[in-house]
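fyi for ur records
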Amino acid sequence: MKKIRHAIKDMISISDEELDGFLKDSYIKTFKKNEIISFPNTVPNDIFFINKGIIRALLIDNKGLEHTTFFGVENQFIADYACFILKKLSIICIQALEETEIVVTPRSSIEWGYQNIRYGDRLGRLIAEYYFIYQDDVINSQYYRTPKERYDNITSIFPNIHNRVPQHMIASYLGISPVHLSRLKKTKISKT
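which gave:
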């Protein structure tokens, strides 16, 4: 629990007692490569913090095609936040892409934190803002950045992602075909 404690202390001023109370029902869980962490068609009741590993969120469209909507790496909080907040059925699946260790924090702990941590609301707001800004950037990038700019951006956000994630998932996240991704990579290599 050391990493999540450090991450929270970096975000807000919090006493050890408040942090102990907040994390008392949290637990560590390890997922194997490709194992599902959170399923669609369920109401999300947990927030996850990645200690080790990488995850992706994906959804399947009405034609049965899979789309990667975001990646998460070490020291990030992840969840289907909108559905968590609204207590509605999720349409996304969260999957471990390599052996992944997460801290699972249940809804009851989040609600306890809002009521009992001096800056609990601020913590929730900062996590939600980070997620919103990240998702907003992903959506806007599809419209105002070229595929090459999106490719360059993903490598700055997720260093070493090409060694950790299958290329077809990266292409899906970028909104391009795997063939186009291959061309972008070759162009980048030839220019260096």
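The first strand starts at residue 27 and ends at 31. thats all i got for now
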